[in-house]
Amino acid sequence: MRADGSPPAADPGADPGNGPRPEAATTxxxxxxVAVIGAGxxxxxxxxxxxxxxxDPLVVEAGAQVGANVAAWGHVRVFSPWRYNLxxxxxxxxxxxxxxxxxxDGYPTGQQLRERYLCPxxxxxxxxxxxxxGARVVAVTRHLRDKLQDAGRDQAPFELLxxxxxxxxxxxxxxxxxxxxxxxxxxxxxxxxxxALGEEELAAAGRIAYGLPDVHAQPGRYAGRRVLVVGSGHxxxxxxxxxxxxxxxxxxxxxxxxxxxxxxxxxxxxxxADALPARAALGAAARRLVASGAVRLAxxxxxxxxxxxxxxxxxxxxxxTLGPVDQIVAATGFRPDLAPLRELRLGLDPAVEAPxxxxxxxxxxxxxxxxxxxxxxxELAHPERDFYIAGMKSYGRAPTFLxxxxxxxxxxxxxxxxxDPQAARRVELVLPQTGVCTTSGAADLAAADLAAGGACxxxxxxxxxxxxxxxxALSCCQPATIPLRAHPDSVSTSCC
Length: 496
Description:
Elements: E1 34-37, H1 41-52, E2 57-60, H2 68-72, E3 77-78, H3 88-95, H4 110-122, H5 125-128, E4 131-132, E5 136-142, E6 158-164, E7 167-173, E8 175-178, H6 199-204, E9 208-210, H7 219-222, E10 226-230, H8 234-246, E11 254-258, H9 277-292, E12 296-298, E13 303-309, E14 312-317, E15 320-325, E16 327-330, H10 359-362, H11 377-380, E17 387-389, H12 403-417, H13 421-425, H14 445-453, E18 458-459
Parallel strand pairs: 1-2, 1-8, 2-4, 8-17, 9-16, 10-11, 10-16, 11-12
Antiparallel strand pairs: 3-18, 5-6, 6-7, 13-14, 14-15
Helix pairs in contact: 1-3, 1-12, 8-9
């Protein structure tokens, strides 16, 4: 399928019914494409890097549009400026078609990221014919090899089972990069890692929203209501700020913020030590919201049960009860969907669910450093040769992922697949420091809470000047009055 949804003239590696049967392929064929799962920022960057290396990518996206996961938080402005959200190989493709880059110091919303960058990238001649939209990957395996079979395994092509419009087909590939993200699989509210008792019923009844809901787009659901926001990461803080702004139109709105940690140390970020001013301002704004009483903070909340009563939902936790409340926002982070990869030989850390070499760098039980050393193909490799998980999904259940990290991952992976180990090992990235880092060999409760409630990169709706990081510069009741940095607001209306 092309970017506009029309089918291509030919689909490399697919089983169209008028070519060689996939059952006939039993050795890795260099003519097969490299399958990239997910057409988000990292997936499209992977395709750009593969093309630069002379490899043939085929990007398979479950959504009907590129950047479907980004569209889900399109209302949110990220805390990293444009220069941290663009991939070098991708911008080279865009430059060929006359694309004009945005102000590198501006802070895009998710919608702007998608419409000004991802959609134009997907529509470039180099990538448009290599996109398969509306195609969900049900399973990935080795062709004619189940998980137990050793003989000829590394030589067998990968087989992807793809579902589109109710029909399933096979796709053969020489290698696979899974950049499908984690936003489709949020963590539950239950402190034990599974849904709290009553959670699934309340979610089905529309009483619980996961991730980053646009509360301004749903005033009937949140305005004038008692709202509980659960989670200690950037997603939770964004929702809190939006709810406080909504309360300006509905004064009866009540907001409670629940976190697992028992102390607030590190809850508000690194302050002036953070190299990303908007991220620092996000934490400072949260501090002021709590200090002013605009938001009531409840600590030590490890949820076990949710009960619907005539007066509202009661939230029971290890040391007490919260509520009654009308609505709950579960900004509790995300986890990878590993079910489609069950027939592959993965090397994942049993706790973090990240590649074993990467896990110690991001495990919040070992440290809560927001900055992770750059890493690539070597750290992301699995026992299954030529299979990689990249992007947010590579972090498993750990938080604090930045797009720059994913871009460096796929640059290295593309080099490895092209047979350039020296380039794959080379570090071509310097990440901004967070100003927060506590290292310990023992479990750190604050870090564990970060993992439970963290998200990757959203920030307040308004970007800030570096001088505005101090909490005194932020309004406790009107976060929208944070000083603005000039940035282009116009967006392209044409999209893929």
